[in-house]
Amino acid sequence: MRFHFCILAIVACAVSAAHAGFYRTEKSADGTWQMVAPDGSATFLSGVDHVNWTGQWCERTRRAAYHETNRKKYGAKAVWETNTLARLGKWGFNLLGAGCDNDLQHRGLAHTVYLDIGGKMAKKGGECAIRPNPGNVPCGGFPNVFAPEWEWMCEKVAREMCAKAKDDPDLVGYFIDNELAWWGDGGMWEDDALAGGLFDIVAALPQDNPARKALAGQTSKVAFLEVLAERYFSVATAAIRRADPNHLILGCRFAGFKGAHEVVWRAAGRHCDIVTFNCYPWVDLDTGVVMAGTALRNVRFDDALAERYNWARKPFMVTEWSFPAIDSGLPCLHGAGQRFRTQDERTRATEIFLRAMIASKPIVGHSYFMWVDEPYWGIRKELPEDSNYGLLNENDEPYPLVDVFARMRPPVFSRRGDAYSLRNHGGMELRGRIGGRQMVDAVSLHGAEIGSWNAMLQFVDCGKSVWRETARVVDVEWNAARRVLTILAEGGAGEIRFAVTHEIDMDGARPIFRARCAKIENVGRADLKLERIYFRQYAPYAAATVDKAQVPSLWKEPKRAEWNDPATGRIWGLWTDAKDADDFFRYYVSPKDGSVHPDAGFKPHESVAIAPGAAYVPPEDCSWAVAEADSAEYSKEAKVE
Length: 641
Known about the structure:
Structural class: alpha+beta
Radius of gyration: 28 Å
Number of strands: 36
Mean pLDDT: 85
Largest sheet: 17 strands, antiparallel
Shape: globular
Helix content: 10-25%
CATH class of the largest domain: Alpha Beta
Number of helices: 11
Strand content: 25-35%
CATH topology of the largest domain: TIM Barrel
Low-confidence stretches: 1-17, 541-566, 568-572, 574-589, 628-641
């Protein structure tokens, strides 16, 4: 649904008790997972990988161009840190992903810790590795989890890195590893190799190798892989939880949807709090359809995600994703991801995929790859990546796609006892309480109260039209993935009583909120003969006596209404895209004191009589938006999706 509004200054479960006071995940009744911050507010994590002062070192040129830029531009690293944190906040990021500078931590953003347990083992080689990785490159190795050193390495890393962080409220959790070669020496995207590659490597090892001994008696390649995965996750997660019982275990960052076999995803779900994977999807800019990636260009992202969720049954994070564009001047020959021609195309793809992740029920966050572009000549021989992955180029200049993240950063919901609030980064906040008389007791912008919000019904009682507002909030629920606040409130008296459900969503960056009447229930003993549905926005400054001459010029527009704040000269408005000709706005002028407020009304297309115990679901377009606009710019229009 689209809402049209003025372009300037628009306003308008299972909970783990072990993680109380720290980041945790919750699952709502409709199956949506969400991340809960230490203060109890629901949030969607939006992070960036490899935010650091130096950028990437290029082996061929023996230079770090981004580091040179920063030394000239900022002089001191501390100045760069302050500027970078401000940029991250402005662009809507709330998380430092993998590989970020530790000096940026504890300064307003959440962070993660990358343990690299299996990577350290694979780098050691010998009996410590099933697939050695001396070059320490992504997708390059796999640890020997059956060797005695595996338990020792897990305990050592957990003791050194996790124990000291166990009381850190800014820490989300730990990545065990990144892109291990679960497929062994086989083709990475071949299903038979995913099941058999490690089996074949182990079968060729000496008889006294601990992994070869574990192979004895296995009935199939898949059965062996299942034992191996169980050993990997059970030992690693147990060691981490002994050292730190408070923080989340964030999986091992699978290399794409086909980066591990089904039995491995299942094992990850059994032992981790969140299952993580790196994903470089393919986007059709014409249709907006997102496909699952290079090896799954014929499979929709949502379908691949649903299949793996059925295996893991835990929330997900996408821990790498990006769309390089060749107009950046970089070769973009090495590294994962769909290539686009221009930054404009890259930006559009970024927004499409970001929307897909936010709308997904299992995904609780993401981490974008990455902060700054890779070097033109690649990083090093073992890692020749030379692509336009960055939010910035090596001259510290941001690409247009940063505006997408800024625009789509989610609002913040919090609940303390009966009190609840929803606020965004554009300065708008809605506050209410369970048991309160109005759905929203206060709508404020930058701390200044601009009104309240409630529902009202017009119905027939004893042959006469009666208007009644909801008078008690019964319950609220925040869905972080859909970014929807559901408020249930009751009203009426005697035999005619009703409950109204509003779904409120708020733009993440601009001061605007929208409300939809999702359901009306008859909780009384007599039929509810519904005539009209009202959305009530009360403005505290509308107490002065007014007449129609003072109403702004769009008074006669049937789908719009505005009112003035005499103190500031601001104009406030409500509007809709509802197509019914009977939808209307009008001003109600109190006969007692002349106070005025706008009424947004919706008349059902047909007469509605709701029997006791039954419910009426209004059409999708029974919704309204509330916003602020500068009066001088009111004739200019823009669109919000």
